[in-house]
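Ticket #4471: structure export looks truncated?
Reporter: QA, pipeline team
Priority: medium

Steps to reproduce: submit the single chain below to the structure queue and open the exported record.
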Amino acid sequence: MTTSTMTFPTPRWDEGTTVIAPPDGRTGAWAGAPSAVRDGDTIYLAYRLRRPIGEGRGFVNVIARSTDGVSFTPVAELHKDDFGGESLERPALVRTPDGRWRVYVSVATPGTKHWRVDLVEADSPEELAVAKAITVLPGDDTIAVKDPVVLFHDGGWHLWASCHPLETDEHADRMSTWYATSPDGIAWTWQGTALAGRPGEWDARGVRVAAVLPDGDELTVAYDGRATAEENWEERTGIARGTFARLAADEGDPVESPHAPHGLRYLSVVDLADGRRRIYYEGTRPDGAHELRTEVV
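Actual output as written to the record:
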């Protein structure tokens, strides 16, 4: 398998800027899980806000816009009750080839460890809040599906999703990344496991593809990983390369927040008009809450 030599833009915490603060300063309060799209001079950003377990968890996905990539104005909100969900996780914001807007929404089934992915589509980002949702990745009794990364490339749709086994609650935090293809971005066909954890490494417990950069038929990705169940919600970021269907992790240490327990995850990348790239990511603050940050690389 050949691998891309593309350099992936990785965060340097001290060069970053806070974009969205969490709802409050407690552990378990998060702003993050970003998904960014540039449309001309405007950047649209979808992200998740979360309160601690027992106080609402992931209660809303927000769609916001900005002309400088730092100061954002919300234009739409997707609330967990709109989907009958116990919690929402990372949204995937996508512009279709015909100019419409989509958000793929990760929805937790109440009272279970199960997740599914729903889709809303509209002519504008503002209209996404009132668009009708359809389920496109239902999962089943054995697997939870969430946090998709969606790409239209070379005439087809591609998706990488975080999949969690549901045999027992004890192991439901384990995750691998599955790859799927689609002719329309709605009906998906699974193609197998694209990336899995490595025994004895920092990503042994699970991996989740967060951002993808295609180079012809090859791919370079940023992914989230954790070594143990105790590191759930505090994943760190690594790089992997390979084909769309099969990726291999780079050697070396992950990128992390300087603040314990060092979570840095959900990287999203947009190409800027001047040839640079702006990245967004979620990271752990000194107080243990998570904030949404950005920097230009």
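Status: closed, not a bug. The export was complete when the record was re-opened. Leaving a note from the reviewer for reference: Residues 113 and 168 are 9 Å apart (CA to CA).
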